[in-house]
Every structure is written in structure tokens, then in C-alpha cells.
């Protein structure tokens, strides 16, 4: 597959990471939890085939397809967070621990933005949690772009010296609003086609390509 990115002109001082679908393979658990929530809150249950088709849609369109009324969204999100806190941690994608360690050794400050509880994210990351300096966890009323801007201020880093990595259309949109360059990875929740249509700075298919885009030496492949 042809390369769909150009290496950043300089390695970012701050790299803001998404969690679900970017660092951890939580989609199988999420589909089970979503079905649990559908039975509990009465919105439409979906088949595996329908779930795959929804990967190409933005969040609001997915909620419409599931027939979730807006007033129910906070309650459903809280229910899913509670289920996540009780469930075994989802596995890290292969290469994640090595990549995080290499970034830290290269002097890149790492931040994590997730709607999960911090304890849930730390359990999943295990020893790799020590590589994360800035944490922005739990639900937010102000959206992801605001959380990006807050993290930039806390880290005293200008948007031009930072970048974001995510796996959903909303990650790309939030990064744009915060003035950040953004890479979208294709191994998470959204399809490569949907991500490409949102026009990220980079569309990344492998962990080694992600390391190269950031500016790490590509000579040493990422390991599990």
C-alpha cells in the first residue's frame, strides 16, 4: 500500500494520545458493552455486520443509527465507563509498549486524553503508564478540543510544537480545532476510508510507520 503521510518536519515536544482503538484493542469489548447498554436503555441493538458498517460514520450519525436520544447519551456513557472499570483491561496493540518507551527516551512528552477513568487506562497500560506525563481522563462537558488546549497549556507547549494521534473522525476534528497536526491510525474504531475523508495530516497503517511519522529512527522495528 502506498504511503499516505509525510514525516513531520520536527519531532513534536508533546504528543497527545487517544486510548481506545489507538493504544488498546477495546473494540471487541465495546461491542459487547454496547449490546448490554442497548438492552438496559432500550435503544436499537445491532448485528456484527451493522457494527462494521457504522465504522464509517461520525459519532452523531452512529447515535442516530442506534436511535439514541441525546438526553440518554450521558447516562449511557456513564454506564459504559462503569462496565469498563469492572472488566479485565483490554490488550495493548502489538508494538505499543516499545513505541511509548522509545518516545520517552527520545525526549517526547506524552499526554493521554480519554473518556475512561484514569484507573482503567493505567490498568491497561501497565508498566507503560510510567511513560505518560499528562493525563486527561473521565467525561468532559467541553469536548476533546478543549481538553487538548488545556493539556497544551499545562505542558507549556505551543500547538505548532505538538501533535495528536487518534483513530476516530472526532479525534481529527478536535485536533484541528486545537491547532494540532494529527495522525489517524487505521487499526482502531473508524475505517481507513472514513478517516481519509476527514483529511488528517497522516493516515497510518502500522506502528512502525507511526514511529517514522513522529521522527523516530525507523531502523529498529517496534516490538510487542
Q: So how many helices?
A: 10
CATH second-level architecture of the largest domain: 3-Layer(aba) Sandwich
Cα distance spanning the termini: 23 Å
Strand order of the largest sheet: 3-2-1-4-5-6
How many discrete domains?
A: 2
Order of H and E elements: EHHHHHEHEHEHEHEH
- Major β-sheet profile: 6 strands, parallel
C-alpha-based Rg, rounded: 17 Å
Quick structural gist:
The chain is an alpha/beta fold.
Describe this structure in words.
There is one protein chain. With 224 residues, the protein is an alpha/beta fold. It has two domains: 136 residues, Rossmann fold (3-Layer(aba) Sandwich), CATH 3.40.50; 60 residues. The mean pLDDT is 91. Helix 1 packs across helix 4 and helix 7 crosses helix 8. The protein contains ten helices and six strands. Strand 2, helix 6 and strand 3 form a beta-alpha-beta unit. It starts with 13 loop residues before the first strand and ends in a 10-residue tail after the last helix. A six-stranded parallel β-sheet has the order 3-2-1-4-5-6, sandwiched between helices. It is globular. The longest helix has 15 residues. The chain is 43% helix and 11% strand.
